[in-house]
Structure prediction request, 618 residues.
Amino acid sequence: VGRLVDDLWEEPPPGAVSAVRTFVAALRRAVEPQRPPRAPARLLVSEGPGYALRPKRGSVDAWRFDDAVTATSSMPPADALGRLEEALGWWRGPAYAGLDDEPWALAERSRLEQLRLNAIERRSEARMALGRAADAVPELDAHVTEHPWRENAWQLLALALYRSDRQGDALAVLRRARSLFVEQLGIDPGPQLGRMETDILQRAAHLDVTPDVESGHDLGVAGHVWAAATAAYDRTVASSSRVRLESTVGLLRSLAVAGGSGLEAARGQRLATIAAAEQLGDAELTARIIGAYDVPGIWTRSDDPDQAAQIVAAAERSLAALQPGAHDVHRARLLATIALESRGTRAARGPDAAREAERIARRLGDPMLLAFALNGTFMQTFHRAGLAPRRDEIGAELVALSDRHGLPTFEILGHLIRLQARGALADFSAADEHAAAADRLGEQYERPLAGVFTEWYRAMRLAATGSSLGPAEAAYRDAAARLDGAGMPGVERGILPLAQLCLRVWHAVPVRFDDDTDWGPYAPWARPLVLLAHDRPAEAADALRQTPEPPCDLLYEALWCLAGRAAIATGDRRIMERAFTELTPAAKEVAGAGSGMLTVGPVSQHLDDLSAALDRPQ
Prediction:
């Protein structure tokens, strides 16, 4: 308290300590508006002779920036670029602006500024690693002008120019750097700049490989192997070869599990690859091209429904063209593809295809084929509520099968499925173990999307088990930030406001949202509740009557709970009865928790409320 008094007043008035305590009380109300009267503070706490602020790490900009930049060191370039773009976008000027002369701010201000400069340089490295050297040049040029004593920045600028086919400019930059150091500091720059000049003059091969600027070594072993192999492939395999199409699918599969822009690129090229195969008129080749894209899927809403429908149609054409009784492996892969790409629809073909693919895979004893087929089976277990135990069985088999046969991507899928299922059954200790296993495998095998789903799970778990809305909503916002740039629009769009809506409905907190809230595909179920919150019951009742059946997906129970809650509020007995019927098989589950993303509380609570409303006299 003494330090606060000294900071606030040059000449402290009588009662200064009491004034500080009054300020703190007001500040506590502002930063913890949901805290009940006389409940102990959790954020701004009394400690010793004063006060301490104890925020969660993700709620402090400086810590969040530090964590984001640090995390990029182990990310693939595409993911690192997106994360760095986001983190640098948080800056709005110098750290602690307006507090330039405060001694307590100087060290942290300097540290954050150095971290920001490192992040700018890492962003340029990521751009170059993605083949965008020319895009990195303008930023690096401005960077070295503003911070001329950062040798690493000069080296990166020279490399970016060299990779942009500007060898002369790259050499001129290095000589300009040397002149600055000699003329203004009276010292020679470090040896790395000298080596860079020599390498550019000699057109050293390693300059086309991503450099590890911090250590001064090349990350060139994998890079050289890749460059040599692709060059040999281009020389050896004819551009019109059918083998190229199959190789392309393998590359797209690897891109898809890399996340971010890789997933978007794979999705963008997949249909073109199938179309090219169909044009050749070879049914077996087309079947191989379609079926080889065995990328696991965990979310039941397609990222691109139109494309999914086209892939299903192509798979059906290929099945019809295959000779009857032959090509069982290709047939099973096409059927599994149909099951996966039919996710979230009510078409009977999806479940039929899943059953047939699984039957063939078990008969053939092919573990990879069975894992792919089980993924299709999982996607078709949402035709009614209450099927979390069945999905838990599928996840358990996937984990065991993948562990035995070294299928890490499907092992991650199995753990994520079990995470969802155990969450639906309120077995959060088991779900925690599966989240940890998915994180461990994701890090080991560089599958960054696993962490997106586990972070959402932990936010949902906090919502399901915590007593305060504030931390849960903050966790949801942090999890949503991970989705930005993850390449999964089917997951991302509308999920954050839906999670917040479910949390507020469950806790009977006013449903307040901005008019421009993007509800994505969940707008029909959100609209009646939002209208009710704005005291527009007639419009809410009309909107509820127009609400469609929830899709057969991971949010089936949650959306029925929202519809049931709106029906109770508007007195719509027909929808109350329907919601009660649809939710009854899931009476022992936590509504929405099976998604691993959000929850609207125990299904039993909603059933009790629906039953009580239906028992009231009309």
